[in-house]
Amino acid sequence: MDLKSFEALIKTENSARLFLAKLCWKNSHRFCTRCRSYKVYRIAGKKFRCKRCAYTFHEFTGR
């Protein structure tokens, strides 16, 4: 990736967050960072909660 295309990806905060989230979550399958369960749901804002252990986390927890 050249510098110009990278700058285009991180031009805004939202586009940078989406770019990094895509690198963190394979195939956009989010899972609990504590118990590794795939049964998670979105709560207020950009946070997620696990149905199995009730752990609340965001996209970059534990990274």
List the helices and strands and how they pair.
Layout: H1 3-9, H2 13-24, E1 40-42, E2 47-50, E3 56-58
Antiparallel strand pairs: 1-2, 2-3
The pLDDT mean sits at 87
- Give the end-to-end Cα distance, rounded to a whole number of Å: 23 Å
Overall, the morphology is elongated
The proportion of residues in beta strands is 15-25%
Question: Going across the major beta sheet, what is the strand order?
Answer: 1-2-3
What would you call the structural class?
A: alpha+beta
Count, helices:
2
The amount of helix comes to 25-40%
Write structural notes for this entry.
There is one protein chain. With 63 residues, the protein is α+β, with helices and mostly antiparallel strands. The chain has one domain. Helix content is 30%, strand content 16%. It has a 3-stranded antiparallel β-sheet with strand order 1-2-3, with no helix packed on it.
Short recap of the structure:
This protein has 63 residues and is of the alpha+beta class. It has 2 helices and 3 strands.
Overview features:
alpha+beta, 63 residues, 2 helices, three-stranded antiparallel beta sheet, elongated
